[in-house]
Design goal:
It is built from three helices and no strands. With about 120 residues, the protein is mostly helical.
C-alpha cells in the first residue's frame, strides 16, 4: 500500500511538474510576444522621430541657403544704394524692405528707407 501511495504521489508530482513547465512555457511565449510588440512600437517611434528631425534640419538648411543667396544678390545692388540719385536709392530700399525673407535684413532696409525719406524731405526744403 505504501508502494502505491508513493507511486501515486510520484505521478501527482510529475503532473504538477508538467503543469509548472507548461505555465513557464506560456509565460515565456507571452514575454516574447510582449517584447516583440513593444520593440516594434519603439522601433516605429524612433524611425518617425529620426525622419522628423531630418526634415527639420533640411528646412533650416534651405532657409539658410535662401538667406545666403539673398545676401549675395543684395551685395550686387548695395553699391547702387550708396551712389546715384536719392530717388533711385529710395526705390531700391523700398523694394528690398518688401521682398526679403530675413526679418532682420528687411527691418534694416525699412530703417534705411525712413532715413532716405527724411533726407529727401530735407533736400526738397
Amino acid at each position: 500500500m505504501t508502494n502505491t501511495n508513493t507511486e501515486s504521489e510520484a505521478i501527482l508530482e510529475n503532473k504538477q511538474d508538467d503543469n509548472l513547465e507548461k505555465v513557464k512555457l506560456y509565460l515565456n511565449f507571452y514575454k516574447f510576444l510582449a517584447s516583440l510588440f513593444f520593440g516594434t512600437i519603439l522601433g516605429t517611434f524612433l524611425t518617425w522621430y529620426i525622419n522628423y528631425k531630418e526634415v527639420q534640419i533640411q528646412e533650416k538648411e534651405s532657409k539658410l541657403q535662401l538667406q545666403l543667396s539673398e545676401r549675395e544678390e543684395l551685395a550686387k545692388y548695395f553699391q547702387y544704394t550708396m551712389e546715384g540719385d536719392i530717388y533711385d536709392r529710395l526705390k531700391l530700399s523700398i523694394f528690398f524692405s518688401q521682398i526679403l525673407t530675413d526679418e532682420d535684413t528687411r527691418t534694416l532696409w525699412k530703417n534705411i528707407m525712413k532715413h532716405k525719406k527724411n533726407y529727401s524731405k530735407i533736400m526738397q526744403e
